[in-house]
Design goal:
Layout (H helix, E strand, L loop, with lengths): L1 E9 L2 E7 L4 E5 L6 H11 L15 E9 L5 H8 L7 E9 L4 E5 L2 E3 L1 H11 E5 L12 H8 L3 H33 L1 H14 L5 H13 L1 H15 L8 H14 L9 H27 L4 H21 L6 H61 L9 E8 L11 E8 L7 E2 H4 L2 H15 L7 E5 L7 H15 L3 E5 L3 H4 L4 E10 L2 E8 L2 H13 L5 H15 L1
Parallel strand pairs: 3-13, 3-14, 8-12, 12-13
Antiparallel strand pairs: 1-2, 1-4, 4-5, 5-6, 6-7, 9-10, 10-11, 14-15
Helix pairs in contact: 5-12, 6-12, 7-11, 8-10, 9-10, 12-14, 14-15, 17-18
Length: 559
Amino acid sequence: MLTSLAIRDVVLIERLDLAFGPGLTVLTGETGAGKSILLDSLGLALGARADSGLVRAGQPQASVAAAFAVAENHPARGILAEQGIEAEDVLVLRRVVGADGRSRAFVNDQPVGLALLRRLGALLVEVQGQHEQVGLADPAAHAGLLDAAGALDRLRGQVAEAHRAWREAERTLAAAREEIAAAQRDEEFLRHAVAELEELAPAEGEEEALAAERQRLQQGERRGEAIAEAISALTPRDRRSGGPSAALRSAARALERLPAPNTEAEPVLEALGRALDAVAEAEAALDRLSNEAGPDPRRLEQVEERLFALRAAARKHLVPVVELPQLLATLKARLAALDAGTDRVTAAERAAAETCAAFLAAAGRLTEARKDAAGKLEKAVARELPPLKLDRARLVVEVAPKPESGWGPDGVDRVTFLVSTNPGQAPGALDKVASGGELSRLMLALKVVLARGSPVPTLVFDEVDSGIGGATAAAVGERLARVAERLQVLVVTHSPQVAARGARHLSVAKQVKAGRAETRVTPLDARARREEIARMLAGEQVTEAARAAADSLLTGSLL
């Protein structure tokens, strides 16, 4: 719902702040007072084409900000989420137009593209005027409006779900076909690569283990030299001397020959014994190391050949060595897919056919329901037309099949609202057959019937009462009030019968201030409203009879 409109330096408006509420708001004023400027200003905020002529003379720019209260489930919130704009309880659309004609758009004070502003505006306000029809005149909206009028949400949801399942099955089928086609193109390569890698049989972590082993083997010669040097140090050149072990034993025997008591020598003898044991242990360990440390050129050659083979295969397939086992598994899977591909494609084709049949069945049920709802909508609108001086007009709701390329989540139907305004005239598009006044009233009749399902919370009618009066104008006012029971309605009117139906009344007047014309908008209280409606009835000279007639209209509108 539109809650406020702030206008700065637009044509005759220097500064204007308006508040709006629910129900029916009427705007009245003499011709040329500036009522159209208000609608042009609102249009700017909704994304209409900008024109430098809208900027007040002498000012660098004009700006308009429209604030809306947005329900939790309103689709505008989803669009804001898509764009990363925080959804607040109040949504503000703002447009700034420079004197050079360039414009900037903002949503909740964040700069946005004009396309986004228009997209949001179309979800918030629908304009029905003599020269501009937005919403009902757009054939793309007709299917949704008919479904809302016929309460077909459940069927439409079933069709959308069936369409989603069908399209998913089609994507699966396309992927299966592409996979087998790719596998067939690469079959010779796949079989050769799998055979080659199976023969190589790469193992997890093999490269790291081989590299470590090669390093150990390459260090074998240096290890052998160090061990030999250690053994040589323990083995004297003169083997008759017996080496360290013999020396330790000789020292022990010498101490044992000391005369008794020999207590001083006991610690030394114990130390010599330990040293003798340690030397013997070291000699035995060195012998073992010497036996194990001998270089193994054949093993080193085998390790290096294996590493070379693994790395060559990795370079060939453009992967690290560590990924060779996974590559083999992947290539095997592709071969298996090729071998089993025909079965997969057959199964996918069957699933696609079944889901398509399910979609068409659900769409068929929706089509039948739409045709039934179309008949009811035509009859409901027909009942609204005679009081609006459209007794010769006839609405036709056409439900025709779309080509397969046009099938979608909303079904297989092209729904179009057509109108014939004279007997014998072939029905045509709404905006092609009816005149401006007829079209506006026809749109009003449609809105009366469709108000319950309208996704747009605010409607604007610009001179829907043009060219009519008396009982017809009263009928227009009564229907506007009925629509306003469910939606917020703003109407620019010259009809006192329509004006009397408003829950709020704004008077638009042009004044001259400091030699410059300026448009003023004044909310009217009960007394001022009576005077305005009397003026609309009588003209410039308001009479008591006109005031009495105004009282009658106001009283009647409350019944």
